[in-house]
Amino acid sequence: MESVKAQSYDVHIDELAQAALNQHIAKNDYSKIFVLVDTNTKKYCLPAFEKKFEESIDSIFEIEPGEENKHIQTCLQVWEQLSNFDGDRKSLLINLGGGVLTDLGGFVASTFKRGIDFINIPTTLLSMVDASIGGKTGVDLGSLKNQIGVINQPQMVLIFPEFLKTLDPRQIKSGYAEMLKHGLIKDREYWDDLRHGNIFEAASSIQKSIAIKNDVVLQDPTEKGLRKILNFGHTLGHAIESYCLENYDKKTLLHGEAIAIGMIMEGFLSHKLTGLSKLCLNEIKETFLQYFEKVDFDDNDMDAILKLLKYDKKNSHGNINFVLLQSIGVAVTDIKVPEDLFVEAFSYYKE
Length: 351
Known about the structure:
Elements: E1 4-5, E2 10-13, H1 15-27, E3 33-38, H2 39-44, H3 46-52, E4 59-63, H4 72-84, E5 92-97, H5 99-111, E6 117-122, H6 125-131, E7 139-141, E8 144-148, E9 156-159, H7 169-186, H8 188-196, H9 203-219, H10 234-246, H11 255-273, H12 278-291, H13 299-308, E10 321-327, E11 330-336, H14 340-350
Parallel strand pairs: 2-9, 3-4, 3-5, 5-6
Antiparallel strand pairs: 1-2, 7-8, 10-11
Helix pairs in contact: 4-5, 5-6, 6-7, 6-9, 7-8, 7-9, 7-11, 10-11, 10-13, 11-12, 11-14
Protein name: 3-dehydroquinate synthase
EC number: 4.2.3.4
Cofactor: Co(2+); NAD(+); Zn(2+)
């Protein structure tokens, strides 16, 4: 399957990924090769990876999985391990895991010794279609998503679809939400293909999502304008995800589960503010509710979630900026939303 050319690196898929990895290692004189895994990928993915890798690994570093461990204390743990095992500026860090691990691992590599090479090998559908492109690295600040980080590109990204067999259905659906988002913001035909067929695990669909995101990032690598459209559903979605993470009486949501709610609500805002038709709005809601159970939010939950909006990364000059849809496949950025519409958006979701 054809590779995708990103800003300064390639995304290789399946057989090409294995060949590209071993060629890269052979032509670079790395002093040390380290692999970062979490407890899940160590068990389910590392053995398969080691069979593909022709060089010896100097050390394997293991962290705990999950968004709740995506913080600076985990970075400290990995930085110390890199130092203790004689990592230097000519070392390589291979990040084998989902989006939490590749975000954190990329940040660790970008800041250790002022920057060492890293390669991302995403192992979840979400990380393959989302975190694999764009060079965003970072960690959370408390329960606030992705507040600390840098944009820095990996040497390459390697996609092995076989790793999807290690995932439970909930993780697969979480990635599916991001794929549907790619259709909503950029490609109506892709949206229709995804929602009408069970093809979202196919390598061709993964490649399509990567290509859509990559096309946006190439035009706006530092998120000054167009790249903001990738945040559709994420303004409310991230606030919902953070709220559920910090409240023990709420079920912790996977990223895709939270942004699915965000896309329904921001679809409603799009209907009110930027011309999205009622027919398309209902189509969006019906599609996401087909795959994601409703989450119950009362008035206190809603108030707390809305207070978290002020921490969204797209905000500027005290304004909360939304990405909304004019139609399916056409997104617009920097839309200001009257506060009274937030209550209506929650009501629409709960109907």
